[in-house]
Amino acid sequence: MKRLVNDGYDVVEEMLEGYVAANSSYVKLDEENPRVVVSKVISKEERVRIIVGGGSGHEPLFLGYVGADFADAAVVGNINTSPAPDACYRSVKAVDSGKGCLYLYGNYAGDVMNFDMGAEMAMEEDGIRVETVLVTDDVYSAKDKKNRRGVAGDVPVFKVAGSAAARGYDLDTVKTVTEKANNNTYSMGVALSSSTLPVTGKAIFEMADGEMEIGMGIHGEPGIERIKIESADKVIDEILTHILKDSKITSGDEVYVLVNGLGGLPVMDQYICYRRVHQILEEKGIIIHRSEVGNYATSMDMVGLSVTLVNLDEEIKELLDYPCDTPYYKIAKDSKFRFKK
Amino acid sequence: MKRLVNDGYDVVEEMLEGYVAANSSYVKLDEENPRVVVSKVISKEERVRIIVGGGSGHEPLFLGYVGADFADAAVVGNINTSPAPDACYRSVKAVDSGKGCLYLYGNYAGDVMNFDMGAEMAMEEDGIRVETVLVTDDVYSAKDKKNRRGVAGDVPVFKVAGSAAARGYDLDTVKTVTEKANNNTYSMGVALSSSTLPVTGKAIFEMADGEMEIGMGIHGEPGIERIKIESADKVIDEILTHILKDSKITSGDEVYVLVNGLGGLPVMDQYICYRRVHQILEEKGIIIHRSEVGNYATSMDMVGLSVTLVNLDEEIKELLDYPCDTPYYKIAKDSKFRFKK
């Protein structure tokens, strides 16, 4: 195992301890439930609070986006495991300001069950209204959009919600615009290796050297087929073909692009792949509003990447670009990316 | 090979093409020399210009720090290879505003030779004064500080230079404060694997599964010894013992900390390691001003990390925290990390 950990059973607690120590100006662990990461720079205004979460092993997702004007709290599960219901519930109590909360997470059965229990407890015990938007961006995971899994599309969808809350929208409006953002968000990935589980020291699944699987999910959910590793351009061509067909994004549409490294893929390769995404979109007359390339939603040491497109309208675009400040996502008021290119 | 590339000989050009496309609001390739990445948001003031560079394969170093109020240009070599002298020269012509330029790069023989030639050409051909500060932070690479290699300490040392130039200091003053920052910067790394060369499809050096080498350089330069992978805490204990002994950083001193992933190490492990760094520094009464954790200076897909400490005085601290805006380094004027913790 090529990991740097201590006891494999302690990785989440130790990671959290390190995370809040390194980012202590932004976040703290909740005093009552140490699986809830809470913003220390939360707005003093009464606002809808944004709560994100899911299993560990996808860092900087989810906790990296807790800060100012993005997520207000993250609920943390064990590796690839949904957070416990009491942590989901506690996150609401920790941040609610009287305007209700929005839960946001990728669509996985365990997460749905436990966050739903948290929302029920908040309503029953405290009368706090909690709504939910499931992120369902992985185009290859199901035919029906609402049954799809959430992958790196989490990041832009969360961002839209955080900005909507920061603008003072009420809970129904935050939910509506976030649902629209999710409906416009499409991702597909490729894996060249499995991630390694710290407890067993083993890969989650076997993948021979020189093999890859397009369409594979971030926990190893099956993709199209296991084939020899192809060139970056061929891989991106295939991914974009699926995304464009499914999304119906076409000439004249404007998009946000995220090329997301899964943890073990060099930045160099991410940009070689981005280059091809950019070429294809330009060839097709699709307008690129903004692009991000990097490790935003990982699967520990998995080698691979995903491509996400968000089909923009003016409202989503403004919310995606709204200023925020978290350890892993910063948009300054005078940020240079707003300059005309 | 678990890489996503096209022809191995094209990786640098394709990476650059993707990089400037994705970050086109910040940077462009120089029209005359496409191995020079130039800021599009360069200050309109006449200022000392900061030029960084070195071999490719360390992304986001060097080009990721070109933008506003940090580096003004980066000169790009092939993988693990210094940039050509004409590219070094051209970078000066591309950005000089009449106040001279400072070259900043890690201390490697090829880089020194080629950047020095670039500086001579700038003086002889154009009368532009170019000074140099070599970054020499790798404590294990040589006994004498001035003979040491530059590793992730590049990032804070570059930052100090960029801030000093942004404040309008003259070339001698920028150089002096940058030298001071370098003299106060100490790093040491550990590698659990080699990086993979795209042209050969092979590792640069062999390292068996389950092995590691503390003190190894980012191109595979030899470390202390090849041993079985130890726990994160033991690895950090050894690294910090070397750094603290060499730097003489002690109780009451104030430091900036960078835990830098080398490309293939999960964020989770980086924070588990940061946790131990934080514990040790707190135990010793060393004051942590600010910490950063992430992939800042990588070696493609190498699994490993380095720890960097910068011993701070008020001047270096202010310059490290000075606002800037680049694709991979952003400090907003109202950044939350400035809040009292």
From TrEMBL, chains A, B:
<feature type="domain" description="DhaK">
    <location>
        <begin position="7"/>
        <end position="329"/>
    </location>
</feature>
<dbReference type="Pfam" id="PF02733">
    <property type="entry name" value="Dak1"/>
</dbReference>
<keyword id="KW-0808">Transferase</keyword>
<protein>
    <submittedName>
        <fullName>Dihydroxyacetone kinase subunit DhaK</fullName>
    </submittedName>
</protein>
<keyword id="KW-0418">Kinase</keyword>
<dbReference type="InterPro" id="IPR050861">
    <property type="entry name" value="Dihydroxyacetone_Kinase"/>
</dbReference>
<dbReference type="GO" id="GO:0016301">
    <property type="term" value="F:kinase activity"/>
</dbReference>
<dbReference type="InterPro" id="IPR004006">
    <property type="entry name" value="DhaK_dom"/>
</dbReference>
